[in-house]
Amino acid sequence: MTDATPALDPFLEHRRLLHSTAYRMLGSVADAEDVLQDAWLTWSAADRDAVRHPKAYLVRTVTNLSLNRLTSARATRETYIGPWLPEPLLTSPDIAEESEMADTVSTAMLVVLESLSPVERAVFLLREVFGYSHAEIAETVERPEATVRQIARRARAHVQARRPRFDTDAGQRRQVTARFLSACSGGDLNAVMELLAPDVTAWSDGGGKVTAARRPLYGTDHVARWFLGVLAKPALTGVTLEPATVNGELSVLFKLGDYVGGCLTYDIADGLIHNMRFQFNPDKLSGLHLS
Questions:
Q1: Element (H or E) spanning 241, and its range?
Q2: Bridging pattern class, strands 249-256 and 259-269
Q3: Cα–Cα distance, 202 to 277 (Å, whole number)
Q4: Distance CA 68, CA 245 (A)
Q5: Single pTM value for the model
Q6: What is the DSSP string of 159-222?
Q7: Quick one: which of 53, 52, 81, 63 has its CA closest to 26?
Q8: Which one of 18, 43, 51, 138 is most buried, counting C-beta atoms within 10 A?
């Protein structure tokens, strides 16, 4: 960069980090974008000469805006119709090579983070994902450093106890996904059941906007029959199942032409599918239309 080249605005320079922070905090693409808009307004009105460390200022702003939004959102989720799942985010295939992104932005991890309190979630992400010091986090969340250390230990133990342990081999995931898609396209109940773990659980998030199971489904036979029954409905005529990288992992999109009407993310262990998460709520699919 020459002297004549204008410096990149810090907000634009750190936008990816800010969006990652907001999305991991909220589990919502739409809410993360709203937080970034509010942060931009705050940044635009700030006295730049008084901001010594723009990156820290921006992360603190986004974190606090996310905390406020998450606190109010939790009350709304208590009255949510059916299971609440995080919003899926379409990611480039090579993002899965970044272990930090693939692990901490996976749907499974976002579900675990949802069980933390808003402050615990903020402290955990800033410490474990983004590598901030306890002192920096204390300034961000406006808590004493000793308190932040206690929160960080508690949140880390909570996540470690609940973090799912599944295979991360990309080759195996591609193989299982291909077999699953083939079985589904042929309506082969036995082939689908062979790919599901005996204790498989399926969650379906329709949010009351579209028809979806309002309670988790358990067991190979129950889950397989329900899913193939959904695919056989006249309303889904013409819908195709296509592989795509979502939240850093190979997943499945439900498509009608160019329209994405849903998403399936899942965990794999020992060559079998566990924890199937179907996102059908049309209000929560904006992250699957990103270019």
A1: strand 240-246
A2: antiparallel
A3: 6
A4: 30
A5: 0.86
A6: HHHH-------HHHHHHHHHHHHHHHHTT-HHHHHHHB-TT-EEEEE-TTTS---SS-EESHHH
A7: 63
A8: 18
Q: How far apart are the first and last CA of the chain?
A: 29
- In the chain, pLDDT over 90 holds for what percent of residues? 67
Closest residue by Cα to residue 34 from 45, 44, 24, 23:
23
Tokens 């474990």 belong to 128
Cα distance between residue 110 and residue 154, in whole Å: 17
Please check whether residue 71 is in contact with residue 35, taking contact to mean a CB–CB distance below 8 angstroms: no
Contact by Cβ (8 Å): 232, 85: no
| 8 Å CB contact between 28 and 86 | yes
Given CA atoms 75, 81, 83, 89 in this order, what sign does their dihedral have? negative
So what's the pLDDT on residue 4? 53
| pLDDT for 111 beyond 60 | yes
Instruction: Please choose, from the candidates 77, 58, 74, the residue with its C-alpha nearest in 3D space to the C-alpha of residue 9.
Output: 58
Cβ-based neighbour number of residue 168 at 10 Å: 14
Q: Which pair of tokens denotes residue 53?
A: 């460390």
Residue 48: per-residue pLDDT: 84
Chain-centroid distance, C-alpha 173? 19
